Predict the structure.
Amino acid sequence: MSLAENIRKKLATLPHKPGIYLMRDRFGTVIYVGKARDLRKRVSQYFQPSRRLGWDLKFQALTGAIHDFDFHVVRSEPEALLLEGKLIKEFHPRYNVSFRDDKRFLMLKVNLNDPIPRFTLTRLKQDDGARYFGPFPNSSALRRTLALVRRQFHLRGCRPLTPNHRDYQHCLYAHLQYCTAPCIGNVSREQYLDQLKPACDFLAGHCQELQEQLAGEMKKAAAAQAYERAAELRDLLADLRSTTDKVNRFERLPYSLPLAIDPARDLAQLGQVLGLPAPPDRIEGFDISNISGTFKVASLVSFRHGRPDRANYRRFKIKTVEGQNDFASIAEVVRRRYTRLLQQSQGQPQASTLHPRPSTLDSLPAPPTALPLPDLILIDGGKGQLAAACAELAQLGLRHIPVIGLAKEFEEIHRPGEQEPLRLPPESGALKLLQRVRDESHRLANTYNARLRLRKISESILDEFPNIGQRRKAALLKKFGSVQRLRLASVEQIAQVPGLGGKTAAQLKAFLQARH
């Protein structure tokens, strides 16, 4: 079946329902994720020749690269928006611009174990004992609905963990009677929780009564020709419906690294075009990932017989490079990797004596037997990255290992000592194999980078504690290492941190216990 026939057959199965679609290239890689109110109408537009004249260059490049597509049906357009954002963060498609950063949709959070609980906005769900609502695709509607909830149920909106009389003197919510002021004892904690729990039920979707009330007030205002008031109520009702509509939770859609149809043939072709004495049975690929010089990490993927050898994947934190310097980062990780392999093969201890410069070896445990050196090393990058890797291999006495660089923009293969890059046809099995190695190393590096960033975000729970600055936060994390260890510490141990007294330490301990 030809490509056009396969696409037409799939288009015929698309329903006229909301959902998301994933466009794939000839390697099976997701290159674009989109959402649609009507899947059949939207996806069909990509394959209508009559529309080509109105397309820009980027869209023409996208349609020219589409080899196949998948789709997933959802219940509503907001659900499609949420799932689209989730999948773009997961796959990082080449032709998507929005949602590719680490920003997430807003959620509402309330911890009923706090002395006086309050609703707060957050973008990260943590295992801290709190109750979460969302995510919500419309942040503006959520904020307006939260203001309505606070007025409707007389809840506090101030920031202190445990507000007191001094906070009450400057509290606008209490003076406007939006809040019942539990901070000064107007109501007990149990009475305040009785106000809070119906608000939680309201945000969970039990809000039909209030919607009917708002709809009735809107009609009365319109009948009295109070059109501005009617418009305000109309917008508030729309925000309320948008926020409290239930959305599905989506599991990860099936996706795996595409495999070659004939790996042995691709390996033989790769060995031939690179002039190797034999097909490269073991290939190792390196990539660097960092965001503006922060969370600098590297990945090493291993392919054996043309297929991923995941047991021998490795991840590295870049430790000796200041700022954003991919060349130096590649040099460090190549040095660390092959210094370790040489030491394992010679039965030497982990401290390096093979290289005059300082090196920090990978923290992962060594395998019981030493791995053989690879038959080919692939560096994600151009001439600069390749030169840095070659210099390190020469210092280690490993000049004999073939090493190449694969540049993304034009898929050019750079080789040591060769002025002009090698360009293979797009349909070449050898090029497809190199692209699989490169893409897998890129995925592993980005995944590790994202994990480190999420770990950093998890430390932001300390930012919710009142009157704690960056200096105190840094001192706490330096002493205890993580928020989890801080939770296990005693009040006396916390009080030993410079800048924290016994009273603050006790408050911090209670704060963390309430979020455990």
Notes: Residues 263-446 form a domain with the Nucleotidyltransferase; domain 5 fold (CATH 3.30.420.340). Residues 254-259, 351-368 have pLDDT under 50 and may be disordered. Residues 39 and 484 are 45 Å apart (CA to CA).
